[in-house]
């Protein structure tokens, strides 16, 4: 029996005498979440009031009492294998010798963090803050681990080493290493692995082996990736040497933590293996001791419990987000490699530290900032943990309807690739939507990702044909029977935000920081005095402001105002001046979109001077020719990135160990209003000057928790330093009538159409009534395509309907008199499908029409009724359609906001070029001042 609940009170520790001698105990009062159903029956207490009152006393015996020294009221407690008895009519619980006590079980601790915590709690904190820097032992360690995996998958040693060293080309190049020397060193390490594999009679061909496996334990709140499992026993590889007979303590802890996760899966683990690969490489004449690389050790229940208690210490500290001092451990600072960093961080942040403090303390506002964002990021981490938890708390169908999983797949086999990895296929027979995309990392499983067979894989294909059928193809290290594919949450995003804070605040330049902390005003030079963009005064001023900025400049670009165009012109000016430029944005799509404009033949930046840094899967096909080749000759890789005038990468990649080694004169960051402050800092920290391009009146950063991360650095700076910004006030997208509301409400009436043609566009321009059509910003290509469509249409001999009068206006409001039911309004969905059909029958191409709805359920309802693109606002940001139809869903009243933020309405309505149709309920919309004005405008 297990119980789980919130701590209400913790009594003092006591010693009692029992038949087993003197024992320690602590009594804790808990509010139990789910009382065991059989509680009353077990105790034979007929009092039903007990069942309504979930407060119970729990006695923690022996070592578990220690966990209560750092637990606090309000924390959650999960206790397994409890005993139930009664004391004066009250049911009471107590731990048994088989119990585990898990504090804050929802907080998921990584195995490697438990390892560093055991070495020293401050090491855990410093690793989290600073990330893993580019250092040779780290890169070599990664290569050896990969070769290990390859050997387990049956690959030939030499070809594995060649490939893996090749793959690390860029990192080795930046470290100034020679490939041959690295190959030799890896070979020495790998010899230990090979020898051990041979000698253990357990050849890789045997089924008892498997390489790295990601494991999560819902009970113990632990996750991690074991290097390998041999007959269910965790094997950890260490690239160092250890000539003692026993494995190192922290290494044992790591292997034992994996064992715990296996225990949670019902596997009894009582041994662990540590493989010290350097042991075979050390000189036997000089070294004494135990030089065998493999060291087995027994994993007794006591060790597993110790691991849980260490994990509990971390969870408790993270609960109130306190900073470890190092005194919690017996670690000896003078032998610690991290001693200097530890003292510097303690000194700069004025933290208590066992190693002491050095250096000058940072100004109070910087420390306050770091602390505030550290807390915000840790809250975001918790929200990611909530996502992990849904892997086991939600049923498969709940996950599917939440778009978090594709379920009920039919396995369709697997093929082993040359690399030893597997290509796994499954058939889907429905067109269920999900958040999964090609190129994503996902969790594939045979049905249950936690207790079943599961593997982290990369999606290669997810396509669905017209009938809704399709083949899913993924690649993974091990073969699985693919029946389900889940969105796999990742903490990399939060980890990268922390390292960006560290790079900017702790390692950043004081002069640069002063301006972001309002200790001095941003300054501007006069170096740019030419006319760069004659056709658009605001864009021209923006380029000049950006080139002149000594610190930062802000380019505020409402919808369709040519932000991307301006960025391209700006880059050509900067490159011509000899500046080295970082071009960044949150998503790969945004980076590639900006790069497309930079590579326009009319823009004076040569392809040879640009490199695109990122993963193959993330980068658009059209950018593959300028993608940085990070494999092969180390020197060539390093030169390629170091000599580039323009380096383009997402802000997440800016936090990678390769990009953290780069420096730039200027960082130009697109869609900066959608970036959290720390995400922006990841790029800012790499450059002397910064240009942020964005629009804080459109979508804010997407974050899970309600914290300061919701406000972008762009928004904060434009409010504190409006003089550093330029508003692009001419838009090339919308008819005058469509843009008017947005201009008035969001841009102080300053947004105007760039040309008369833009201003006067109408839906009828899309019809054959106007054969030549007016010029749109799509240009001749667009007209030709349209003419082809019209010709095809006429060839069809289909009757050409004309567009009814009420759909000819650029802005239309329609009230279908529907009823909201949950997050859908089917009458509205039906009417929207009719409107779409009317447009199409009139000759408008379906690809010119888009529908936006506030909720996914309504998106699904409309999608079932029409073939045009239907989506939420977030998916539409950055794109535009000739005709946009918006479904508001709400009827009668507006108890909850429709788009939760009026900026979403701004984005929705500004997606339309020629026609905007608002479909909603008059009564509901009139009940809110903002929507009432929208309605008034639409009905004009
Ligand atoms: N100065 C200009 N002269 C002529 N055309 C321009 C100019 N600036 C932008 N355009 C055109 O306006 C259109 C929109 O420009 P762009 O894609 O740069 O806008 P954007 O602000 O990035 O759009 P979004 O709001 O979707 O991010 C493009 O077709 C572009 O060629």
TrEMBL record:
<keyword id="KW-0234">DNA repair</keyword>
<dbReference type="InterPro" id="IPR011604">
    <property type="entry name" value="PDDEXK-like_dom_sf"/>
</dbReference>
<dbReference type="GO" id="GO:0006281">
    <property type="term" value="P:DNA repair"/>
</dbReference>
<dbReference type="GO" id="GO:0003677">
    <property type="term" value="F:DNA binding"/>
</dbReference>
<dbReference type="GO" id="GO:0051539">
    <property type="term" value="F:4 iron, 4 sulfur cluster binding"/>
</dbReference>
<keyword id="KW-0479">Metal-binding</keyword>
<keyword id="KW-0004">4Fe-4S</keyword>
<dbReference type="GO" id="GO:0006260">
    <property type="term" value="P:DNA replication"/>
</dbReference>
<keyword id="KW-0547">Nucleotide-binding</keyword>
<dbReference type="InterPro" id="IPR041679">
    <property type="entry name" value="DNA2/NAM7-like_C"/>
</dbReference>
<protein>
    <recommendedName>
        <fullName>DNA helicase</fullName>
        <ecNumber>3.6.4.12</ecNumber>
    </recommendedName>
</protein>
<feature type="domain" description="Pterin-binding">
    <location>
        <begin position="805"/>
        <end position="940"/>
    </location>
</feature>
<keyword id="KW-0347">Helicase</keyword>
<dbReference type="InterPro" id="IPR050534">
    <property type="entry name" value="Coronavir_polyprotein_1ab"/>
</dbReference>
<keyword id="KW-0408">Iron</keyword>
<keyword id="KW-0511">Multifunctional enzyme</keyword>
<keyword id="KW-0238">DNA-binding</keyword>
<keyword id="KW-0227">DNA damage</keyword>
<dbReference type="InterPro" id="IPR027417">
    <property type="entry name" value="P-loop_NTPase"/>
</dbReference>
<keyword id="KW-0540">Nuclease</keyword>
<dbReference type="GO" id="GO:0046872">
    <property type="term" value="F:metal ion binding"/>
</dbReference>
<dbReference type="GO" id="GO:0016887">
    <property type="term" value="F:ATP hydrolysis activity"/>
</dbReference>
<dbReference type="Pfam" id="PF13086">
    <property type="entry name" value="AAA_11"/>
</dbReference>
<keyword id="KW-0378">Hydrolase</keyword>
<dbReference type="InterPro" id="IPR041677">
    <property type="entry name" value="DNA2/NAM7_AAA_11"/>
</dbReference>
<keyword id="KW-0067">ATP-binding</keyword>
<feature type="compositionally biased region" description="Basic and acidic residues">
    <location>
        <begin position="788"/>
        <end position="798"/>
    </location>
</feature>
<dbReference type="GO" id="GO:0004518">
    <property type="term" value="F:nuclease activity"/>
</dbReference>
<dbReference type="InterPro" id="IPR047187">
    <property type="entry name" value="SF1_C_Upf1"/>
</dbReference>
<comment type="similarity">
    <text>Belongs to the DNA2/NAM7 helicase family.</text>
</comment>
<dbReference type="GO" id="GO:0043139">
    <property type="term" value="F:5'-3' DNA helicase activity"/>
</dbReference>
<dbReference type="GO" id="GO:0042558">
    <property type="term" value="P:pteridine-containing compound metabolic process"/>
</dbReference>
<dbReference type="Pfam" id="PF13087">
    <property type="entry name" value="AAA_12"/>
</dbReference>
<dbReference type="GO" id="GO:0005524">
    <property type="term" value="F:ATP binding"/>
</dbReference>
<dbReference type="InterPro" id="IPR000489">
    <property type="entry name" value="Pterin-binding_dom"/>
</dbReference>
<dbReference type="InterPro" id="IPR014808">
    <property type="entry name" value="DNA_replication_fac_Dna2_N"/>
</dbReference>
<keyword id="KW-0411">Iron-sulfur</keyword>
<keyword id="KW-0235">DNA replication</keyword>
<feature type="region of interest" description="Disordered">
    <location>
        <begin position="757"/>
        <end position="807"/>
    </location>
</feature>
<dbReference type="Pfam" id="PF08696">
    <property type="entry name" value="Dna2"/>
</dbReference>
């Amino acid at each position: 029996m297990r119980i789980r609940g919130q701590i209400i009170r913790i009594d003092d520790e006591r010693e009692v005498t029992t038949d087993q001698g003197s024992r320690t105990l602590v009594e804790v009062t808990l509010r139990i979440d789910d009382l065991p159903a059989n509680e009353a029956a077990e105790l034979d207490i007929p009092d039903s009031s007990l069942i309504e009152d979930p407060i119970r006393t729990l006695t923690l015996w022996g070592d578990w009492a220690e966990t209560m020294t750092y637990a606090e009221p309000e924390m959650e407690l999960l206790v397994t294998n409890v005993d139930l008895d009664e004391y004066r009519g009250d049911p009471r619980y107590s731990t048994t010798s088989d119990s585990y006590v898990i504090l804050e079980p929802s907080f998921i601790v990584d195995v490697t963090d438990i390892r560093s915590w055991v070495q020293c709690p401050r090491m855990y904190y410093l690793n989290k803050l600073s990330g893993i820097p580019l250092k040779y032992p780290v890169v070599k360690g990664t290569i050896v681990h990969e070769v290990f995996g390859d050997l387990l998958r049956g690959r030939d040693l030499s070809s594995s080493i060649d490939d893996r060293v090749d793959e690390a080309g860029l990192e080795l190049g930046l470290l100034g290493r020679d490939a041959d020397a690295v190959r030799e060193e890896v070979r020495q390490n790998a010899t230990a692995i090979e020898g051990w594999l041979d000698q253990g009679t357990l050849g890789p061909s045997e089924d008892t082996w498997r390489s790295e496996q990601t494991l999560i334990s819902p009970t113990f709140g632990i996750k991690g990736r074991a290097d390998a499992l041999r007959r269910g026993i965790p094997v950890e590889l260490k690239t160092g040497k250890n000539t003692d007979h026993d494995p190192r303590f922290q290494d044992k802890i790591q292997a034992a933590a994996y064992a715990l996760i296996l225990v949670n899966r019902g596997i009894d683990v009582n041994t662990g293996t540590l493989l010290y690969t350097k042991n075979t490489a050390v000189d036997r004449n000089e070294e004494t001791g135990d030089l065998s690389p493999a060291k087995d050790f027994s994993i007794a229940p006591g060790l597993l419990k110790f691991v849980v208690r260490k994990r509990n210490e971390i969870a408790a500290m993270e609960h109130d987000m306190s900073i470890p001092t190092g005194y919690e451990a017996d670690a000896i600072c003078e032998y610690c490699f991290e001693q200097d960093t530890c003292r510097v961080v303690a000194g700069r942040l004025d933290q208590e530290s066992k190693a002491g403090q050095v250096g000058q303390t940072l100004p109070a506002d910087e420390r306050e900032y770091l602390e505030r964002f550290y807390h915000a990021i840790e809250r975001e981490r918790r929200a990611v943990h909530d996502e992990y938890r849904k892997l086991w708390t939600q049923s498969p169908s709940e996950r599917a309807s939440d778009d978090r999983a594709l379920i009920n797949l039919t396995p369709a086999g697997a093929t082993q690739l040359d690399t030893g990895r597997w290509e796994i296929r499954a058939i889907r027979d429905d067109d269920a939507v999900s958040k999964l995309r090609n190129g994503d990392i996902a969790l594939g499983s045979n049905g249950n990702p936690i207790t079943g067979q599961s593997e982290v894989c990369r999606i290669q294909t997810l396509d669905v044909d017209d009938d809704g059928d399709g083949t899913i193809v993924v690649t993974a290290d091990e073969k699985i029977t693919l029946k389900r594919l889940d969105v796999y949450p990742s903490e990399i995003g939060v980890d990268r935000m922390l390292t960006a804070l560290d790079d900017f605040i702790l390692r950043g330049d004081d002069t640069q920081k002063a301006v972001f902390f309002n200790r001095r005003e941003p300054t501007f030079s006069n170096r740019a005095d030419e006319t760069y963009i004659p056709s658009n005064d605001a864009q021209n001023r923006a380029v000049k402001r950006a080139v002149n900025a000594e610190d930062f400049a802000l380019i505020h670009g409402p919808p369709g105002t040519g932000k991307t165009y301006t960025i391209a012109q700006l880059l050509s000016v900067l490159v011509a001046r000899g500046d080295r430029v970082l071009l960044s944005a949150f998503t790969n799509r945004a980076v590639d979109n900006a790069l497309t404009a930079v590579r326009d033949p009319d823009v004076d930046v040569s392809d040879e001077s640009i490199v695109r840094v990122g993963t193959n899967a993330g980068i658009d096909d059209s950018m593959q020719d300028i993608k940085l080749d990070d494999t092969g000759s180390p020197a060539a890789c390093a030169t390629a990135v170091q000599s580039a005038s323009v380096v383009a990468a997402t802000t997440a990649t800016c936090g990678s160990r390769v990009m953290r080694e780069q420096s730039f004169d200027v960082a130009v960051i697109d869609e900066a209003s959608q970036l959290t402050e720390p995400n922006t800092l990841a790029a800012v920290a790499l450059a002397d000057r910064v240009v942020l391009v964005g629009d804080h009146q459109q979508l804010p950063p997407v974050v899970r928790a309600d914290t300061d991360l919701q406000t972008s650095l762009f928004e904060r700076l434009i409010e504190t330093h409006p003089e550093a910004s330029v508003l692009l006030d001419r838009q090339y997208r919308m008819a005058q009538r469509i843009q008017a509301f947005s201009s008035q409400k969001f841009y102080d009436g300053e947004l105007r159409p760039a040309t008369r043609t833009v201003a006067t566009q109408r839906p009828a321009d899309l019809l054959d009534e106007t054969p030549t059509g007016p010029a749109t910003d799509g240009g001749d290509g667009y007209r030709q395509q349209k003419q082809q469509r019209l010709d095809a249409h006429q060839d069809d001999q289909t009757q050409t309907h004309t567009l009814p009068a009420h759909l000819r206006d650029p802005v239309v409001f329609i009230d279908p008199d529907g009823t909201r039911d949950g997050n859908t309004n089917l009458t509205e969905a039906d009417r929207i499908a009719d409107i779409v059909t009317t447009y199409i029958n009139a000759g408008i191409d379906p690809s010119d029409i888009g529908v936006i709805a506030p909720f996914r359920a309504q998106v699904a309802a409309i999608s079932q009724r029409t073939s045009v693109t239907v989506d939420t606002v977030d998916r539409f940001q950055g794109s535009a359609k000739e005709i946009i139809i918006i479904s508001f869903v709400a009827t009668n009243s507006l108890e909850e906001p429709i788009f939760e933020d009026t900026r979403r309405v701004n984005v929705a309505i500004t997606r339309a070029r020629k026609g905007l149709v608002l479909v909603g309920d008059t009564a509901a919309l009139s009940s809110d001042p903002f929507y009432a004005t929208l309605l008034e405008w639409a009905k004009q």
